């Protein structure tokens, strides 16, 4: 499968905002759930947010709920992650991924065939 193309990371002061974008150039995942994960240095990759599926529902990890907003632009095969009120602990490499399976506790890959991942985009939040 063609990899996803994620972008939009950068350096931002605490309290600031960034918007990440992920394009599905193969138009493969329009009917699937797409989402974002992140990995900080020395830590495991963790789920951040996801959107899509039959009800176009959204789901967030507790650590970003109320600060991040995920949205889908189906016409452009793109998923966005609007990140507000950023904190130093949000510093990580952010990865787009699809397709995802979701439970109330979060989302994961591997349940619906092979997953596609973006190359990752660095987000650094400083005090």
Give a written overview of the molecule:
This protein has 127 residues and is mostly beta strands. The protein contains no helices and twelve strands. It has strands at 5-7, 10-13, 18-23, 33-39, 46-52, 57-60, 68-73, 78-83, 92-103, 106-108, 116-117, 121-126. Strands 2, 4, 5, 6, 9, 10, 11 and 12 form an eight-stranded mixed sheet that branches. A four-stranded antiparallel sheet has the order 1-3-8-7, with no helix packed on it. A hairpin with a 2-residue loop joins strand 9 and strand 10. It is globular and about 40 Å long. The mean pLDDT is 95.
The total count of helices amounts to 0
Biggest β-sheet strands, sense, barrel: 8 strands, mixed
End-to-end separation:
39 Å
The ordered H/E elements are EEEEEEEEEEEE
**What low-confidence regions span 5 or more consecutive residues with pLDDT below 50?**
none
Mean pLDDT: 95
Helix content: under 10%
Specify the overall morphology: globular
Strand content: over 45%
Please count the beta strands (DSSP E, at least 2 residues each). 12
Task: Decide which structural class fits the backbone.
Answer: mainly beta
